[in-house]
């Protein structure tokens, strides 16, 4: 049985736990103390609710971050310095240059592994392949409902309660998008990491009052030719900001623990 550590116990973590493949179990959940009782009630006493990964006395087969960019700042280095595998869903944390450098150094020094989950988007394998031949431009657009953008800085840029037509309210680099919209624009960072980087990847963020889906569109052009990917994702019923596919990408990395790397 593979035993993993989950960071976070929100919408995505719960979805992932409900879909864990056979042969994978949760050993530890890292969460704020006020969530510990709910975690023990939901998962039983075979699972330890802890405040920091350092409270774990064993070596998890994988640490799955499904929490926030802040959690990557708080725990990422400790996990990689321990030589553990860390799969990130809050990939926008890597837009912070000093943190990115510290995590890569920790990974290299201690034979840990930092895995960038594909999350809510698809085509990252093709984008990474295209990069090998040289990419001229990559543009990523995120289109979501007003409910998805609530609680983000979009509230100051557009009237989310009364918007009647689609509006692009942010245009800029992937680095700025990921840092300014930490709960909504991790995909911008993922696309940047797989393609031409945080500063050259162009990002548009759009609110659309006529949709209930999270639509991710990527245009990439380079030596290989061009591609255009559009993915219409269903949000999780428990969090309109978060696409179901993002949770499934975390389930998939768990499946690889039992099925091996070549099984998709
Ligand atoms: N890469 C991608 O494609 C996607 C990434 N995401 C990101 O995934 C993460 C999880 O999403 P959801 O579960 O929907 O969010 P959520 O808000 O429903 O749950 C997050 C949970 O993590 C906990 N948490 C946050 N920071 C923590 C910390 N420092 N220490 C301990 N617990 C902490 C919160 O208390 C909350 O229970 C978010 O950062 C979100 O932006 C979401 C969708 C797509
Ligand atoms: O789930 C999504 O559609 C994308 C998302 O929240 C993110 O990029 O952070």
Give an overview in words:
This protein has 264 residues and is of the alpha/beta class. The protein has helices at residues 11-18, 36-43, 69-81, 97-110, 124-133, 146-149, 154-157, 174-180, 186-194, 244-259, and strands spanning 2-7, 24-30, 48-50, 62-65, 85-88, 113-116, 135-144, 167-173, 202-207, 214-222, 225-233, 235-236, 239-243. Strands 3-2-1-4-5-6 form a 6-stranded parallel beta sheet, with helices on both faces. It has a 5-stranded mixed beta sheet with strand order 8-9-7-10-11. Helix 1 packs across helix 10, helix 3 runs parallel beside helix 4 and helix 8 runs antiparallel to helix 9. The longest helix is centred in the C-terminal third of the chain and has 16 residues, at 244-259. The relative contact order is 0.17.
């Amino acid at each position: 049985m593979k035993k993993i550590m989950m960071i976070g116990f929100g919408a995505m973590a719960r979805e992932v736990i409900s879909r864990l493949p056979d042969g994978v179990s949760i050993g530890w959940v890292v969460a704020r103390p006020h969530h510990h009782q709910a975690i023990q009630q939901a998962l039983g006493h075979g699972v330890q609710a802890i405040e920091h990964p350092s409270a774990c006395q064993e070596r998890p087969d994988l640490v799955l971050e499904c929490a926030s960019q802040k959690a990557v700042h708080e725990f990422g280095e400790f996990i990689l310095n321990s030589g553990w595998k860390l799969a990130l869903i809050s990939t926008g944390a890597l837009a912070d240059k000093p943190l990115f450098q510290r995590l890569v150094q920790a990974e290299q020094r201690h034979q840990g592994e930092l895995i960038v989950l594909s999350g809510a988007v698809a085509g990252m394998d093709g984008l990474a392949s295209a990069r090998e031949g040289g990419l001229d431009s990559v543009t990523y657009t995120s289109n979501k409902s007003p409910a998805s953008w609530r609680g983000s800085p979009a509230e100051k840029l557009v009237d989310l309660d009364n918007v009647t037509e689609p509006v692009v309210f942010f245009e800029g680099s992937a680095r700025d998008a990921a840092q300014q919209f930490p709960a909504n624009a991790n995909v911008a960072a993922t696309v940047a990491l797989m393609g031409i980087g945080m500063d050259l990847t162009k990002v548009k963020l759009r609110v659309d009052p006529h949709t209930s889906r999270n639509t991710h569109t990527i245009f990439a052009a380079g030596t290989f030719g061009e591609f255009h990917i559009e993915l219409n994702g269903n949000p999780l019923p428990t969090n309109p900001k978060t696409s179901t596919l993002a949770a499934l990408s975390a389930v998939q990395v768990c499946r690889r623990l039992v099925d091996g790397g070549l099984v998709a």
